[in-house]
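Q: what sequence does this backbone want?
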């Protein structure tokens, strides 16, 4: 008996549809305009630029710290640019299109400062 192939999971079908529906003519036929990679004992640098306005540039050092940026043109025609640092403090992106957290309320900031200035006394364990 011949077996029919298993149907693809619905999630994959949806994802595939989304990718196809958002691809523009420029994206499908994008070409690499500029690419340069340089790996050295003290770090690396890499640059990428495509014909559909995607760009990336990054530099890393021998300690694993990376500084870079990347950008693209949104479907609405806006130039999106993200700058980042990735180091011992994690990935830290910045850019005009990224949401910013609300400021810490003054009362909470004062409480945090008070707690930092008044650490708890060490616990003592007596024998009974």
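A:
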């Amino acid at each position: 008996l011949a077996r029919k192939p298993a149907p693809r999971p619905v999630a994959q079908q949806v994802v595939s549809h989304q990718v196809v529906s958002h691809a523009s003519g420029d994206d499908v036929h994008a070409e690499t305009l500029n690419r340069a990679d340089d790996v050295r004992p003290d770090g690396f640098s890499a640059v990428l630029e495509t014909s559909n306005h995607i760009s990336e540039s990054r530099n890393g050092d021998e300690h694993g710290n990376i500084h870079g940026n990347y950008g693209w043109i949104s479907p609405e025609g806006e130039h999106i640019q993200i700058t980042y640092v990735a180091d011992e403090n994690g990935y830290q992106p910045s850019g005009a299109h990224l949401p910013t957290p609300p400021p810490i309320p003054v009362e909470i900031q004062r409480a945090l400062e008070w707690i930092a200035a008044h650490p708890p006394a060490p616990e003592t364990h007596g024998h009974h």
